[in-house]
Amino acid sequence: MPNKLEMNPVRAIRTFPSFPIALVVVGKEEKNIIAVSLVHTFSFNPPLIGIGISPCRYSHELLHRSPNFTVNLPCKELVEETLFCGEKSGKEVDKLEETGLTAVPGHKVDVPTLEECPVSFECRKVQNFDTGDHTWFIGEIVSAHVADGYDRERTLIYWAGEFRTIGELIRGR
Ligand SMILES: Cc1cc2nc3c(=O)[nH]c(=O)nc-3n(C[C@H](O)[C@H](O)[C@H](O)COP(=O)(O)O)c2cc1C
Fold first, then answer.
1. Looking at ligand 1, which atom is closest to the CA of residue 33?
2. Ligand 1 lined by 96 (C-beta under 6 Å)
3. Is the CB of 71 under 6 A from ligand 1?
4. Most buried of 17, 96, 97, 120 (most Cβ within 10 A)?
5. What's the pLDDT tens digit per position in 110-161?
6. Host H or E run for residue 35
7. Ligand 1 centroid to 45 CA: how many Å?
8. What are the structural domains of the chain?
9. Which residues of 78-99 are buried (b: 16+ CB within 10 A; e: fewer)?
């Protein structure tokens, strides 16, 4: 058995794997992109996806003005753009213009998806609730687009300050 040392819970929670990283587009008139690692499936049928956004983000304000959003999964080639969207605020810079990412009008929601991301989900907000220091916005995927020949091995993932791709396959289920 490993010898486990007691750790402050606020530090320890960061050891919990948080693999997804998404570029979330928010806003109708003023569009913005935010990098989000608090992104999870909340239900398979209906397909619900949740994003955890801190109230101090500009995106939080935009989501309260216009609640729909798109969740776009970047591939590893988009690591710099992803970091940029996770370090700069849309209050100061136009992240769409600065990253050069291409906004494609949503099919079912009034928020664009990102052309360069191989997977895009258009989400219609169904509820939101506060948990500690984040607000969870839960959206139903009303339209989804996946690149032909999508290679999940190129999908960018994130854990403890490091961007990666998926690793060794241990076994199938
Ligand atoms: C890898 C990464 C993951 C992040 N995940 C989240 C997250 O899940 N929720 C959140 O509110 N902010 C997250 N952030 C921080 C925001 O992306 C960052 O503060 C951003 O500049 C906010 O943009 P905005 O002010 O335009 O909304 C993350 C940043 C990085 C680099």
1. 26
2. no
3. no
4. 120
5. 999 999 999 999 999 999 999 999 999 999 999 999 999 999 999 999 998 9
6. strand 32-36
7. 28
8. 19-154 (2.30.110.10)
9. beebbebbbebebeeeebbeeb
